[in-house]
């Protein structure tokens, strides 16, 4: 699928939902992307192609939507996948490396952590996520990757909603901008 066809499919399968009274914002509904065989098949290769020069050795993504998108990209790159957890629930019973994020798009200050043994010195980690707004979670994940002795090479996202400054700082590359949805 060409990149312009994928853009069209992403826009067509996306919905803004109104959760009703007591909730001031429309909420994004990405379920149409996962439900579409053509989008699901195209996403991994398209996101992997955003960093053609970087030869990542591993993909790292935060729960929960990152656990859908990250493995698609890892398969396209023929590398492995590392889950990043958000702190405060279900502890992982082994050594973890954590970093605290700045307030994210919901105003939360999350801790993000990975199993320390799953990232190694020499790893070149591509951070993959569905949507980047403030960049807070992506930045914290980059700190985790660095603390493990690996190198964060950038962030590949389906939707980019961050400022140009954040995109430059974190090397965010995206398939579409939020304004297109
Ligand atoms: O750039 P930021 O402001 O840090 O926001 C980006 C993060 O927010 C979303 O996760 P969220 O925890 O909201 O939802 P999810 O659990 O559905 O992935 C998205 O999946 C990114 O991980
Ligand atoms: N899934 C999402 N929907 C809307 N805004 C977001 N910002 C970060 N993730 C988002």
From TrEMBL:
One of its GO terms (molecular function) is adenine phosphoribosyltransferase activity. GO terms for biological process: purine ribonucleoside salvage. The keyword Transferase applies. InterPro entries: PRTase-like (IPR029057), PRTase_dom (IPR000836), Pur/Pyrimidine_PRTase (IPR050118). Keywords: Glycosyltransferase, Purine salvage, Transferase. The keyword Transferase applies. It comes from the Bacteria. It is an enzyme of class 2 (transferase). Its EC number is 2.4.2.7. CDD domains: PRTases_typeI. This is Adenine phosphoribosyltransferase. It comes from Catenuloplanes atrovinosus.
């Amino acid at each position: 699928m060409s990149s312009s066809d994928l853009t069209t499919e992403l826009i067509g399968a996306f919905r803004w939902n109104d959760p009703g009274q007591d909730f001031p914002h429309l909420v994004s509904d990405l379920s149409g992307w996962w439900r579409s065989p053509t989008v699901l098949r195209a996403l991994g290769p398209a996101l992997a192609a955003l960093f053609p020069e970087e030869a990542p050795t591993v993909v790292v993504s935060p729960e929960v939507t990152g656990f859908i998108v990250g493995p698609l990209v890892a398969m396209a790159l023929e590398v492995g996948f590392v889950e990043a957890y958000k702190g405060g629930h279900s502890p992982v019973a082994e050594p973890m490396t954590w970093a605290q994020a700045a307030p994210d798009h919901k105003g939360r200050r999350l801790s993000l952590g990975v199993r320390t043994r799953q990232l190694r010195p020499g790893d070149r980690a591509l951070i993959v996520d569905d949507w980047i707004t403030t960049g807070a979670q992506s930045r914290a994940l980059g700190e985790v990757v660095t603390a493990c002795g690996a190198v964060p090479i950038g962030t590949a996202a389906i939707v980019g909603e961050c400022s140009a400054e954040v995109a430059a700082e974190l090397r965010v590359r995206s398939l579409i901008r939020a304004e297109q949805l």
